[in-house]
Specification:
Number of helices: 15
Order of helices and strands: HHHHHHHHHHHHHHH
Largest sheet: none
Strand content: under 5%
Shape: elongated
Distance between the termini: 134 Å
Structural class: mainly alpha
Helix content: 55-70%
Radius of gyration: 37 Å
């Protein structure tokens, strides 16, 4: 019994010593049998660059076309004094900005987006759209309303259809001339209160540009185009709210279309025949 007890005590002692060894060298069990290979190379993985989709560049291409058209319009109207060149340039704008681009992006309707971005913190107008709004105004500060002359498809479609421009009475021009200011105020209020973009909804020509729309849209456009046969640019003169901003900016223009004093004989023919009075 004593011998077995002594062997039992020795066994417990050996087990205890082995356990202490494991505690003293815990990392020995985790060491690799063979050293791991160390791969080194001068190659670095390049950063992935994602190019924007082609559609993201289209507004800036349209913006470039707009700048070129307004620059040519200023040259043709003020320096070349050529009505023919201005007319053909407006035909191009009608074809491109009107029928090809379906009436968008539109500088006239952009003032609603600008109003919404100013008064609503949840709305952010795109950079290209802001440029569409500001550039015609900047051009008007230097060259007058060259946007209205050749770049705006809404004005171009009326210019093409005019047959015989009749003179309106002074009271009619003054009364109807107040409508664009009222329209401008309503458009800003509606956009600022998120009630809607009434300029785009009431656009009389977008249904013709897109060859689609409601019967009421086609009817309103047809009525204005019918009136434009005998009243030069009725929408531009008595409805367009963006034209109000351009008219204010053009008052400060350095270069503008005017009669050459040295060649004027005061016959009054230009005043009598001007379709826009």
């Amino acid at each position: 019994m004593n011998r077995k007890a002594s062997w039992g005590a020795s066994g417990y002692l050996l087990f205890f010593l082995a356990f202490l060894q494991l505690l003293a060298f815990p990392c020995s069990a985790n060491q690799d049998r063979f050293p791991r290979p160390d791969f080194q190379s001068s190659y670095s993985i390049p950063d992935t660059v994602q190019m924007p989709s082609p559609s993201a560049w289209l507004p800036y291409f349209d913006l470039t076309i707009l700048i070129l058209v307004m620059a040519l319009s200023a040259k043709f109207a003020i320096f070349d004094r050529s009505r023919r060149k201005v007319f053909f340039l407006s035909v191009f704008s009608l074809a491109y900005f009107g029928f090809w681009k379906k009436g968008c992006v539109c500088s006239v309707g952009s003032l609603q987006n600008i109003s919404a971005s100013i008064f609503s913190p949840d709305y952010l107008a795109p950079l290209a759209l802001i440029a569409f709004f500001l550039l015609p105004i900047l051009f008007a500060l230097y060259f007058g309303r060259v946007f209205c002359a050749s770049a705006c498809p809404l004005g171009a479609i009326q210019d093409i259809l005019v047959v015989k421009a009749l003179k309106l009475p002074l009271w009619a021009r003054e009364v109807f001339g107040l409508l664009p200011h009222l329209y401008l105020g309503l458009a800003v209020i509606y956009a600022a209160t998120s009630s809607g973009f009434i300029i785009c909804r009431a656009d009389p020509f977008v249904s013709f540009f897109r060859l689609s729309g409601s019967s009421a849209a086609f009817l309103s456009g047809a009525v204005i185009l019918s009136v434009s046969l005998f009243v030069a640019r009725p929408y531009c003169r008595f409805i367009c709210p963006y034209g109000v901003l351009l008219s204010f900016a053009s008052l400060l223009s350095k270069w503008r279309l005017k009669i050459t004093p040295s060649e004027c004989i005061r016959c009054g023919i230009c005043v009598q025949n001007c379709p826009f009075e």
